[in-house]
Amino acid sequence: LVPLPSAAAAAASWPNLDPAASTVDLKACMSRIQQEMYRDAAHQFPRSRILNHALEKYTRMHSRCALHADDSSAQMKTDCQYVVYLEGYEGLGNRLLSLVSAFAYALVTQRALVIDGRRGHLAQLLCEPFQNSSWLLPPQFVDEVIQGAASATLEDAMHSGFRNVNSVRVNLRHEQTRAEQRFFCPTTQQRLQNVTWIGWESNQYYVPRLFMIPSYWSLLSSWFPDASLVFNQLIRFLCLPQNHIWEQIQRIHVSYLSSSAVQVGMQVRRHLNANNATLAASVHDLIMNCSLKHQLLPKPVVPLEERGLLNGADKSGKSSRKTSVAVLVASLDMQYYEKLRNLYVEHDTEDGTVVSVHMMSHEGVENDSYEQAVKAMTEIWLLSFSNKLVTSSWSTFGYVAQGLGGLHPVILNFFTIDFEHETRPACILGQSREPCLHYPFVKHSVCGKVRMSKRQSKWIEHHIRPCQDENRGLQLC
Ligand code: GDP
User: Fold this and answer.
1) Closest CA to ligand 1's atom 3
2) Which residue CA neighbors atom 22 of ligand 1 most closely?
3) Which of 139, 184, 240, 403 is the most exposed place for a label (fewest CB within 10 A)?
4) With a 6 A CB cut-off, is 184 part of the ligand 1 pocket?
5) Using one digit for the tens of pLDDT, what is the confidence trace for 119-147?
6) Using CA atoms, how far apart are residues 456 and 462, in angstroms rounded to an integer?
7) pTM surpassing 0.80?
8) Topology in the membrane (predicted)?
């Protein structure tokens, strides 16, 4: 839909782009080279030179360590270590958060990130992220090295003092045993240094915890001078939609959204069942109160006719209309879209702004189908192109859209509707562009005293805060 950008633009999108890369290579993943064209200047965030350098180094290592189906044994790559991302069965938001975390871990520990392409949908949704090599781990390696009897749980590995342990499978989901909670302790990380394979199962964004490990902090803080752009810079490198999804994203953006002066993304995610008219009305009121308070949408006014002022008023759109706003509503539930659309169909706006409201899908309920994952991916990307974004408390779907877009969201705090004793405000201006880590497991008893430099402690004090929608959660800021 748009022409291929110049070689220079392409090189900026893929560090260490092989000068010999043909246009065929580039065309294999158009989103990599075209994504920035759809973002306004305020939301383009070039990577630091030092991060580009780290990605180049990683890419070379990955290319050397990538395994092929015909490699007969893991022993062939004795100087390589791996993180095997084991995709789970939760929603796309959770999967992408944990995939990006696994990549951050791989970068900082110099391990190659590989995935089991038979699980889940990510291998069908995302482009191959690393130039000149694949991230798909041949099935026999997964079966033998990660799923097989030779693989230990973290607890077993700890019990045996890591003796003869070559493969450890860690569970970093929201429920963890005491042993699993110790994964991010510096002592555990030290023990894992000699383990070739780490199987990574998670549904969380564990990057804030990586910053708390002294030896990783110095690398990470140098790669990411702006701590609220870690997810942004990693996901724009790692998780790009394949061409068939990218083409759809472009088509929708151009057909419905891009011609308006302002694009507002509105993600409405209800975790509790809201299938009741009173609750739905409260959700709509919350959406409108937040949108008006933060000047995301213009104020609707009582129709002229009802005010008896219709005589000859110009409805042609030529004189009074000033600007236009396109709202993309992403939700499983159609009623929030309908209410918002009807409001702006039935009312003029105070300042004459024209508002169009759009919805691309309304799936009703979550399911694990590939088709729903494609829709979710498409909508996350479209939301990320917005100039302004509204998200829902506690939703990883919204976290990914905000992080990918590099946007500070306005958060609809649905706890105020669902829980009587909620004390936080109904509408919160996001403190960061980063996702929240809901389950950090940072109690003192987990790792004991971690010795940090004064610089690191100060950095953490400034840049890691409790999340606004989860008090015990942590967020990079
Ligand atoms: P979370 O549950 O809000 O943290 O978000 P997840 O992405 O982890 O899981 C929700 C899943 O429900 C998504 O992966 C989608 O399959 C589906 N879903 C939820 N909200 C939407 C939406 O606005 N649009 C689409 N297409 N799917 C959604």
Assistant:
1) 395
2) 331
3) 139
4) no
5) 999 999 999 999 989 999 999 888 888 88
6) 10
7) yes
8) Single-pass type II membrane protein
